[in-house]
Design brief:
Blueprint: H1 2-20, E1 29-36, E2 47-55, E3 61-71, E4 77-82, E5 86-96, E6 102-112, E7 117-123
Parallel strand pairs: 1-7
Antiparallel strand pairs: 1-4, 2-3, 2-5, 5-6
Amino acid sequence: MKPIAIILAGFLISTFLLTNTSCVKNTDCKATINCVDSLGIPVNNAAVLLYATIKTSSGGTVTADLKANATTDAGGQVKFTFKLPAIYDIRATVILPSPSTRTLVGTGIIKLEEGKGAEKTVTLK
């Protein structure tokens, strides 16, 4: 009877160790984009597009299918989460209302690393 108890105890301990000590690495890449105007005031409702530009063999560039877009909140901020690291181009636009309708645009680049967060401020002019 003792050998069965020892085998059962060993099984339970190994199961506990395997399920509770496994290392789960966070690989999410988080990007926070802050949009401000030329005076540094946050811009809400700005359309923010993150996209990857790839160089072609002929020396030109194309926009990859990898894209993400969102709209800034009242504080001029938008957040994205990606599963893989990458370098993204940023394009933020906002249409200002009357009396004279104008479009402000800002651009930038953000580098995302595995398991880390990155933050970038884009000035719309």
